[in-house]
Predict the 3D structure of the following.
Amino acid sequence: MHLNYLALAVPLFLTFIGLEYLVSHKRGKRYFKFNDSIANLSVGIAERLLDMFTVGLFYFVYDYLHRHFAIFDIKQSVLLWVTLLICTDFVWYWYHRLAHEVTLFWCAHVVHHQSEEFNYTVSARITVFQAFVRTGFWAVLPVIGFPPAMITSVLLVHGLYPFFIHTRTIGKLGVLEYILVTPSHHRVHHASNPQYLDKNYGDLLIIWDKLFGTFQKEEDEPVYGLTKPLESNSFLWQHFHFILEMFYSVRAAHSWKERMRIIFGKPDNVDPAAREILEEKFLLRNKSITETPKLNNYVVWQIATTLTLLFLFLLLEHYEPVFIQVCITLLILLTLINCGAIMEQKKWVFYLEYARYLVLCLALYFYWPHPALLCAAALIMVMAFYFQSHLKQRYLRLVYGYTRT
Ligand SMILES: [Zn+2]
Ligand SMILES: [Zn+2]
């Protein structure tokens, strides 16, 4: 059987999260918040899913650049593997630093910093937008002459390491603090305390921060999250709020010079009032959110099912037709939007079920292209429309434990 064993990262990742939860529980600490952890996992699930479609594209880019523009002819050797790892880490430092200092890149990276908790689930907060920006930076590696196969292997190791530094359960690590990026260093990076802002950009080695003046030791207890917390669990809002804030500011600008300053300047140039105005327009914040056990149960079951589906989806990727891959991706994305909206107690989650139903029917039709299936699907849909108000009430009661008016 031709399985994709990289899928095993999913259960491994969950095991570590479970262990971290147990350790923090034993120490009497609350490092996990339900909504935050679910939101973090949702972002990670979407990224892993979409990564399946982009990984080939990125490899193609590295390969193309290597074949046409490579400056040096680099052959594999132990020394070169080490050199590549150090080069990758150096490029990462600048990618990460600019992701914080340039508005356009911050649009993608901001998602990683929205969590107000700090645990292993935060390491999942990577988006596919970020992968595109990063690839732009890493494109310098094949141009230097590193072969694409070597690059993708090193990126795998380099991408795995940061998982371990997103935790509060590990204190300072003695002599390692001088060389590697440790959990302590990365806690500082995720903190919004004034003295910790824009510090510790490194991924693997802390030397770059020390060299370029962005190093900060962990002293006071960090406060995690954005300086202006998002206070929303909406999957869509988390991904797009800053992009919208940027566009809003660009539209309000009076000259092209000002527009360029907003897009390519520091994120501080984005109008601070934009968030509130856009929230009014798109988020329709629900002020009276109360956590109900019913709601939590539904979200937990959905996320658990989605994680299982994601694992199987990745494991069996070589056996799935592209059409089914697209269907599963859509189904999972709709589920994540659904979970985020449920945590915000939105009423429109009901209508998302129509979309999920439609995708499911398409997938079924792919395997059983019979007119009877279409008829049955259409009949169910018509019935659902007919009894919509009754169904909606029942659904909302099931999900939220009461009917919202
Ligand atoms: Zn960052
Ligand atoms: Zn991080």
